Amino acid sequence: MNFFFGFKNNDYETELQIPKFQNKNSINKEINLYSAKISGKLWEINKIKNSDEDDYFYFIKDKLIDNKIIYFLAKDSEIKKSKEEKLIKYNKFTETSPAFRANFIIKKRNGGFSSYQSEYPFNMTTKNGSITSGTASLTSKSANKNYIIFRNIFIEPIERPFNIYFINLKTNKILKKDQFFTNRTNIIEIDNELLKPEIYFVSSNYLGVPVYLSEKNGHLSFEHTHPPHEYFMSQNKFKIIKKFKSEINKIIN
Question: How far apart are CA 46 and CA 96, in angstroms?
């Protein structure tokens, strides 16, 4: 099961386009669009009734998007309660190969736009951990601005601060430290001096999806990085990554 998320900001508009169909199957007319948000100490589940749609897609426009709300697909019969103590894996509709994804579009107000194919797998919500992502691969020093948009979804309905770092692996130094929040789409601007191959963005204690946004003269580039093991072809890649993350933890600690 996948969740989908957007981003709310004064400078940009975003939109989600979520398919009603699987890769190899026809439209499922029993599938509906739902949202989840934290209400007190519970997840509040709501059926979305005012989104735009056609025969093939749900279109979640900017007016419905919030940095704390997530979206998912389910049958009405699968929603047992309106509030839950934890996120629930309601079905396997979005468990496909290739991966079932939404189109996440970002638009500069009075400017350009970009998009990437996004999803947040349910199994990520059940785990603690850290994300390590190189800052230089999807950014540009010639851009007017570079950002990391970082979405965390955690299975429990908590809004808890956690640390994020920019680390130089050559000097073994923390160059910048800040705070993000769980169950939120967070954003941070990246200064040009942090855009080097040896500098990595690291989250502490919580997983998430880091998406890089670059803007130049109103034009946008928008893409996420893959986990470090996706860049290795070795049979020992997980052993290599474990050692790599161990070195980063030594710097943080």
Answer: 25
Q: How far apart are the C-alpha atoms of 89 and 29, rounded to whole Å?
A: 20
Condensed to tens digits (0 to 9), the pLDDT of residues 162-209 reads 999 999 999 999 999 999 999 999 999 999 999 999 999 999 999 999
Distance CA 214, CA 114 (A): 10
DSSP structure string for 198-253: TEEEEESSB--EEEEEEEETTEEEEEEPPPGGGG--STTHHHHHHHHHHHHHHHH-
Tokens coding 174: 């923390």
Distance CA 180, CA 222 (A): 20
List of domains in the chain:
2-108 (no CATH), 127-252 (2.60.290)
> Do residues 90 and 36 touch, judged by C-beta distance below 8 A?
no
Question: Going along 64-101, which residue ranges are E strands?
Answer: 70-75, 83-84
Q: Give the burial class of 128: count Cβ atoms within 10 A of its Cβ; 0-12 exposed, 13-18 middle, 19 or more buried.
A: exposed
How many angstroms separate the CA atoms of 20 and 54, rounded? 9
Q: Are 6 and 14 in contact (CB under 8 A)?
A: yes
Rounded to whole angstroms, the Cα distance separating 151 from 57 reads 23
